[in-house]
Design goal:
Layout lengths: L2 H24 L2 H10 L3 H13 L18 H38 L1
Amino acid sequence: MNYKSIAGLLMIVLVVLFLGLYVSQMTGYYEYTESRKTTLTEDAIKRFEQDVKEGKEINAQNYLEEEADYNNILSKFGMKLSSLIEQGFNKAMNGLFNEISKTISNSIILK
């Protein structure tokens, strides 16, 4: 394979990944999902206040909404595949940067 085509493909993939992360950050998707986990509904707040007034034992799980579990075979496979791709990418990048570091170190020593 041609090194220019590999480098071009790698750059395209990195730009697409960057744009995806940038858009998700700018739209506030992550903050929204995290705030949903920590925000109580109006009904839960009322139940909590009532339980405090009555002196009942307080357990945070009693007031949080149950999240639906959407896991299935396909989503589990996707997560495993994503994990394998991540591990491969990390190994490839570490190897690439180690080789670049060795090359730079060798060129400095030879000068």
